[in-house]
Amino acid sequence: MNKPVYVFIFFVFALFLNNCVAEESERSLNRVYESEENLNILVPEEIYSVEGMPLDIFFDNLILSDDSDKYKYEILINGKKRGRVYRRKWVFYPLKDDLGKNQLEIKIINPQTNDKKSSVITTLLVASKDKKTKAKILSIGDSLGHQSRFPSRLYELFKLNGEEKNIEFLGSHFPKGSLVKHEHYGGWTWQKFITFYQPGKENIHHASKSPFVFVNDKTNLPELNFSEYIYKTLKGEKPDIIIILLGINDAWTLDIDNPAIFEKGLENIINNAHRLVNDIITVIPDVKIGIGMVIPANYSKRSFQDIYQDSTSPWRWKRINYALNAFYLKAFTSNKNVTILPTHLGVDAIEHYNSHKFIPDKVDYSVSHVVHPNSEGDMAIAKALYYWVENIKWE
After folding, report:
1. Which of 35, 112, 236, 304 is such that its CA lies 20 to 30 A from the CA of 355?
2. 241 and 180 in contact (C-beta within 8 Å)?
3. CATH number assigned to the domain comprising residue 83
């Protein structure tokens, strides 16, 4: 066999291998962004609760499935069945004996064969109902908190436990009817918080600039500067705890049916998140940062039709939501300042949403019922945050 033939065979073989690698890479991407189902259970390393208060876990929020009802769910605490299993959720009221660290195991079971389809073991932390936290809190995010709906509910939980004098909420946004200050703005993204600077572009949903972006005196250009925010806006007050709920607006328009482009979009979100988080930690090295996993949207197809017509659907968003939360769980595993919070687990995609557009209490405009929960949903988010704060260990 002459040399050109060898070269041709080698070229064909190399092309074959390259195609195999490309196909395997694409299949690898698709494993997170399944078009049908993914039973990998999405929970962080720790789940938080408080003695005597209900901990809700909605089964549909654990996995990617268009019919989570077709499985059975079993949840064990330290190897024993505890709590109560309903059709769509598990509820647990921790007792005094449960204080501290517990093992929590979640199993997904095929009801026909009783075979285990999937399982995960995580840690359940239970704080005492008598604990009195003293902290300054800064909450950052999008329209979920723009009118202070869940931030005000969080304050009410502290007040219910007699802690309101120990807790101070920081921020520059203090909308009408709010109980607390914060930095939540409708439609905002991680990128907007690190880059937005357009004086004069203010409207009801947005500020004219990111609260964390300031003009550099040397370059005369706007840039991310959390230190300036602390000393100019907060007059030197530093938060002990920072809550961040972002991601819905960042990921909403991503093309999940193009895995390579979709993954690039998720990587951009995570890179922007790292930029903000790292700038905060540079200024406050001992700060506790809680990043909430993205909550489920309204279960109703009609609600999506009402707002978005045929441009999106509950299933498309559920796939994006699942993939984004999977990325969040991986992105900050080595950062000791950051905790990924299970804010998604207690929000019910049915009962915690309204059937139509609605005007929340103390708000003078209607909001979408697709991604904005009702008052019960706001409280579910607030509980997840409250449970985490009460379980923080201060050194």
Report:
1. 35
2. no
3. 2.60.40.10
For residue 357, the model assigns a pLDDT of 73
Q: Let me know whether 272 and 143 are in one domain.
A: yes
**Which residue from 279, 287, 267 is spatially nearest to 213, judged by alpha carbons?**
279
Per-residue exposure over 44-57, b if at least 16 CB sit within 10 Å of its own CB, e if not: bebbbbbbebebbb
Domain extent, residue 375, equals 135-391
Residue 19 lies in a domain: no
Let me know whether 75 and 106 are in one domain: yes
Q: What's the CA gap between 189 and 185, in Å, rounded?
A: 9
Q: Which of 95, 127, 159 is where one domain is finished? A: 127
pTM of the model: 0.89
Q: Is 274 exposed, middle or buried (0-12, 13-18, 19+ CB in 10 A)?
A: middle
Q: Which helix (H) or strand (E) holds 30?
A: helix 3-32
Residues 192 and 251 occupy one common structural domain:
yes
Report residue 12's pLDDT band, with 50, 70 and 90 as the boundaries: very low
Q: Sorting pLDDT into bands at 50, 70 and 90, what band is 207? A: confident
If you average pLDDT over residues 112-124, what whole number do you get? 96
